[in-house]
Amino acid sequence: MSLCISFFNQGEIFVWADSRVSTEIDGKNYLITDEYQKVRQIGDKVIFITGDAELAVQLFEAVKAESTVQFIRDMASSYYREFVEINGDNPAYQTEHGIELGLHIFTLENDVPVYYQTHYQNDFEMCRLEPADQELFSVGAHSDKALVYADELCRNGLCRSY
Fold it and tell me: What is the pTM of this model?
């Protein structure tokens, strides 16, 4: 499970994500690490990848500073299809929802914050949003609870740019 929260404020983008990687074997959850970077700044984009860790590593390595949103989306789709073709029947890669991969890209286009998201469940169709100033987004596990908590922090003046 992954969690990412983003906040847009006066032309700046702030993104936070958890760093835990775990796996489930025979119904038991095992911690792999608490130090994996699921969100990274690459060039003028901040990218959050959730799902299979092997796919995330492969995609992060493919993205370069000059990569376009469309290129990143196409690579995610291509890597996912290849990975599923090779590992689709392997029980070690199966989750409740199959092999998972989600991609979220935060950037500024002409000084306007833009948020792109896509995932395996919508065949990597890209959704583009232009959030309003001081708008919070949350995706992933328990995002509904996290969003309420983050909103409370911002209302109490704890979400500020320094």
Answer: 0.85
Starting at the earlier edge strand, list the strands of the sheet with 39-42: 39-42, 45-51, 101-109, 112-119, 127-129
Q: Is 90 part of any domain?
A: yes
Which CATH number do you get for residue 65? 3.60.20.10
Burial of 8 (0-12, 13-18, 19+ CB in 10 A): buried
Instruction: Give, as one character, the DSSP assignment of residue 132.
Output: P
Q: Give the number of domains in the chain.
A: 1
pLDDT tens-digit map of 16-48: 888 888 887 777 888 889 999 999 999 999 999
How high is the pLDDT of residue 92?
76
